[in-house]
Specification:
Elements (H helix, E strand, L loop, with lengths): L12 H7 L7 E6 L2 E6 L10 H9 L2 H4 L5 H9 L3
Antiparallel strand pairs: 1-2
């Protein structure tokens, strides 16, 4: 394995799968002398979303998907009225 001009290496997919690292997950790099380590960052259980995060999750992608909504329908969607 070679380091490219940007200081990057490509880790084999099989190795990542073996240690349970999937695309999008965060890792932490460290070193001990001349040994470099890579560790998967373990996250706790998902936290409850704030009201703002819930709002964003509810309306994500609606700007182009729901152009035919009326103002009242948009306000209902934003407010979460059922």
């Amino acid at each position: 394995m070679r380091v490219n001009a940007n200081g990057q290496v490509t880790l084999p997919k099989e190795l990542l799968e073996r240690v349970g690292i999937r695309p999008g997950e965060e890792v932490e790099l460290g070193h001990d002398g001349n040994v470099i380590t890579l560790r998967k960052i373990e996250r706790g259980p998902p936290r409850e979303l704030t009201k703002g995060e819930q709002l964003v999750a509810r309306i994500a992608g609606t700007a182009t998907a729901n152009r035919d909504l009326s103002t009242d329908e948009i306000m209902k969607l934003l407010r979460g009225d059922d």
